[in-house]
Specification:
With about 200 residues, the chain is an alpha/beta fold. Helix content is about 15%, strand content about 35%. A hairpin with a 5-residue loop joins β10 and β11.
């Protein structure tokens, strides 16, 4: 089962998903015509607290050991969701973004992605992966842990390359046609990106 988590900075959302609203993310969802199935947070950044009166909520203390987004992920897992897209954690405070990145590693046995209007970030476990373009022109790979990688069917192929944790070589590759293949021996970060759309 798949669910979305919406935090304060979310813009473009997948309207086919059910959502957990995190703090001011509740307002973002309702502004886009989406009623969250659950709301969680300390709600200190919400301007209109009245929106919470008709929702199932969990109010967290302001002083706590987990972020609101972390608590939302834990709630989703307890409800049996095994795919989670997190929206609204990029483009603002970098400490919040990095804490969301930590969740990818902490819950690496769950398919969690960080999504915004230009990027999708996820972990790739060891194995062979087909990287789909799906409107994202670029893909970049970073070693969460040092890993041998192969990249094929891409503009910049590699064979048995030892990608170290501090090596940025694999930035801004591109698929040939609609997909590329990646084989990795250890956990790596995949970022699919596109240029900002001009309206």
């Amino acid at each position: 089962m798949k669910i979305g988590i919406c935090s304060a900075l979310a813009k473009e959302l997948d309207h086919s998903l059910n959502y957990i609203g995190v703090d001011r993310g509740v307002e973002i969802l309702i502004e886009q015509g989406i009623r969250p199935i659950y709301a969680i947070g300390d709600f200190d950044s919400m301007e209109n607290q009245n929106l919470l009166t008709k929702l199932k909520i969990e109010r967290l203390p302001t002083r706590k050991d987990v972020t609101d987004s972390h608590a939302a992920v834990e709630y989703a897992l307890l409800q049996g969701y095994d795919e989670i897209d997190i929206y609204g954690v990029t483009g603002g405070r970098l400490d919040h973004f990095l804490s969301a990145m930590c969740l990818l590693e902490k819950y690496q046995n769950v398919k969690i992605r960080i999504v915004d209007s230009q990027n999708i970030i996820e972990l790739l476990k060891p194995g062979k992966h087909k990287i789909m373009n799906e409107g994202y022109k670029y893909f970049s790979l970073f070693a969460l842990k040092d890993s041998y990688i192969d990249i094929s069917h891409a503009q910049y192929p590699l064979h048995n390359y030892y990608l170290k944790h501090d090596d940025p070589l694999c930035v801004s590759n591109q698929t040939i046609e609609d997909f590329a293949y990646v084989i990795n021996s250890n956990i790596i970060i995949l970022i699919r990106s596109r240029d900002e759309q001009k309206y």
